[in-house]
């Protein structure tokens, strides 16, 4: 059976999205095909608006509606603490945890296998922000992956010469609600290293 070209094109478009396999792409396409026209039109408008109505903040490089973004423009946020994250989604996670400082979004991590080096990330602008002297602490909040660790180590090395700057790393260990028996060796080692007085 041949699939109509518009349907095939839509399935292929969905398949290019991360986390969407062939079956999910087919389900989404046929859902939109049978959905009310307003729903598919709203999806198309939202997709266009995503590119047209967003900008990168010139300070922290978060994706926002205005430059500077709402967080960088806020007088209620601490200016002396910056959390360095890989992606805007990481920033959203820290916001849920009620972090009250500012952010710096790298837009990736150092990954030689994917040809991503320090120059492809927003590291130089971070150094410029620290150079102003207003920043007292940098929290390296990159992911606990090989790439995230390499990125954190690289940034820490660049920040060492700044006198009086505190460089910290997010703690790692056991998740709340997790059982010790199911934790891997590295997680348990880091949990022991990061223990604190009770």
In sequence order, what are the helices and strands, one letter per element? HHHEEHEHEHEHEH
CATH level 1 name of the largest domain:
Alpha Beta
Shape: globular
State the end-to-end distance: 66 Å
Question: Could you explain how this protein is built, in words?
Answer:
Helix 1 (5-15) crosses helix 2. A 4-stranded parallel beta sheet has the order 4-3-5-6. It has a two-stranded antiparallel ribbon with strand order 1-2. The protein starts with a helix and ends in a 5-residue tail after the last helix. The longest helix has 16 residues, at 37-52. The protein has 2 domains: 5-52, Helicase, Ruva Protein, domain 3; 71-169, Dna Topoisomerase Vi A Subunit, Chain: A, domain 2 (3-Layer(aba) Sandwich), CATH 3.40.1360. It is 42% helix and 11% strand. The protein has helices spanning 5-15, 22-34, 37-52, 70-73, 88-96, 124-131, 146-159, 185-193, and strands at residues 55-56, 63-64, 81-85, 102-105, 137-140, 166-169.
Protein topology:
Elements: H1 5-15, H2 22-34, H3 37-52, E1 55-56, E2 63-64, H4 70-73, E3 81-85, H5 88-96, E4 102-105, H6 124-131, E5 137-140, H7 146-159, E6 166-169, H8 185-193
Parallel strand pairs: 3-4, 3-5, 5-6
Antiparallel strand pairs: 1-2
Descriptive terms for the model:
Helicase, Ruva Protein, domain 3, 8 helices, 2 domains, 198 residues, Dna Topoisomerase Vi A Subunit, Chain: A, domain 2, alpha/beta
